[in-house]
Task: inverse folding
């Protein structure tokens, strides 16, 4: 039975949209679900978890940083990541658009996952390592910029989780309907109620508060009438 939420494991080099853009692969090649759209984005060159919904309020709650759903990424980086680099990621990294919020960062063993096509280029003299990063904000290409800023460029990036949802048991390129959690539904209900209150609240003063109408002959100077000319030349 369908629901308002879809979980998709996005492959490498697939756009997070249904509309065509040049010769790039899009969601249309994988998902047939009318009126469903991504709740947030995942970069063309990143892989992993993407949530889609046909409910506007649900899309807003998932995608907006205001609701602070944590997002967990697995990053394969160039070099053996150091303790000092992990400490910087945990404290916050200074990027061109500001300081990132503290993240949860830790080393991890190479995950047992699908092979990327094309594969990450292997260099004999340069090792790689994996780090798990949990962030609660959404700066553009944030994880890649964070790891590069601490000296360990990202070679492969996989989003493993958004809030309580993970890639567990969802092969790459596959999708399925999932049920929103009670917590998520509660946030959606609260958001919808707040939006209704804003719409119903008057933007103008009520009729009783409006300025009373004053007759032209009391308290207001009447505009003097201009005498009509007896003749007027008309242009042709």
Result:
């Amino acid at each position: 039975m369908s629901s308002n939420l879809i979980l998709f494991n996005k492959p490498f080099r697939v756009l997070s949209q249904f509309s065509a853009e040049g010769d790039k692969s899009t969601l249309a090649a994988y998902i047939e679900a009318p009126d469903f759209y991504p709740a947030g984005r995942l970069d063309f060159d990143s892989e992993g978890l993407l949530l889609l919904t046909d409910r506007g309020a649900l899309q807003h709650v998932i995608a907006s940083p205001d609701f602070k759903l944590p997002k967990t990424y697995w990053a394969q980086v160039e070099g053996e990541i150091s303790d000092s680099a992990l400490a910087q990621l945990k404290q916050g990294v200074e990027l061109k658009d500001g300081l990132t919020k503290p993240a949860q960062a830790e080393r991890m063993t190479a995950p047992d996952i699908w092979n990327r096509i094309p594969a990450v280029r292997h260099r004999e003299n340069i090792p790689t390592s994996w780090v798990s990063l949990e962030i609660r904000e959404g700066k553009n290409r944030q994880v890649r910029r964070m790891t590069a800023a601490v000296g360990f460029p990202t070679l492969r990036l996989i989003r493993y989780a958004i809030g309580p949802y993970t890639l567990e048991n969802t092969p790459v390129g596959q999708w399925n309907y999932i049920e929103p959690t009670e917590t998520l539904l509660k946030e959606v209900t609260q958001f919808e109620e707040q939006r209704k209150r804003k719409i119903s609240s008057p933007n103008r003063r009520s009729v009783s508060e409006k300025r009373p109408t004053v007759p032209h002959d009391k308290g207001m100077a009447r505009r003097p009438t201009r005498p009509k000319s007896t003749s007027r030349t008309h242009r042709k």
User: Anything to note?
Assistant: The radius of gyration is 28 Å.
